[in-house]
Design brief:
328 residues; alpha/beta; Rossmann fold; elongated; binds beta-D-fucofuranose
Amino acid sequence: MKRLLLLIAAAAVVFSCTGKGAVDQVQEKTADAPTSRGEHNLVVGFSQMNHVNPWRVAETNDLKRKASELGIDLIVKDGESSQQKQIDDIKSLVNSSVDYIILAPLVFEGWDEAFKICRDAGIPLIALDREVNGIPGVDFMTFVGGNFVKEAVVAAEWLAEATGKSAKIIELQGREGASCVFDREKGFRETIAKYENMSIVWSDYASFERLKGQQVMEDIILSYGRDFDAVFAQNDEMAIGAIQALKAANIQPGVDVTIVSIDGSKDALKSIIAGELGATVECTPKLAEQVFSAIMRNELHKSVPHRIIVEERLFDKTNAIENINEAF
Ligand code: GYE
């Protein structure tokens, strides 16, 4: 029910911000915002869910970079892949009297206590890179991130094209209960449903981690077998792990099996150049510009869009080389 409210509230926002143009507009209007309150620098707390993959590390580093450029103090907490630890981290940030809290939430549900603590303390909360089940503008100020459904639609359409609309697919999902996981599942599955010869023959979770991706792929080959011709991994790290498992089983990635994933990491682009990964849909961890623009707007008492969605590209063999240097 609350998810429905979230969608209605999001749809009703007057100031919708999709794409780089809209973000630039926000940045332009906030260039003169103060980054201190009276005597003290703005203090922003960041509850990161973990640092288990390069994406998470890149996201934290990008926030640190931008905060230091603006003269804002950033306090980073590592949730160690535990929602309870993240809630405790938020309590501790509230006790430290930070001015804002950014939350990169492990899962979608179960943040009501955190919302209330922040609301009671008058500290605006920003949901970053994954969504939370709450009401924007009430439970949290804004969500900054990608369009996960769209990412998976683009991945599925690429796969349809690459396989002549015929593929038995292994799906590697990230972590159960995360918004990007069920949105990517939805986008991918609804898209391949349009093609009668495309189907998912096996699906499993691999925590968005490389080693897990490798282990899960090894297990799939053992228990399901080799009767598949494509892999859709919900992030690059799991795809790269799966590629290692395929090679170890003498299945040639890029030849016997077509692989598509999401994120656009440097290692993924290298793998595309090596002819192993077929394509990756960008999901950028570099969200600091948008996050701090939202904070600056709020400091200026200007309206902040409830959803700030970034544009994302597709990388394949046609553009991997030209984009590798800027990849994370
Ligand atoms: O794709 C993955 C990360 O939440 C959008 O989480 C993010 C996802 C990203 O661990 O690599």
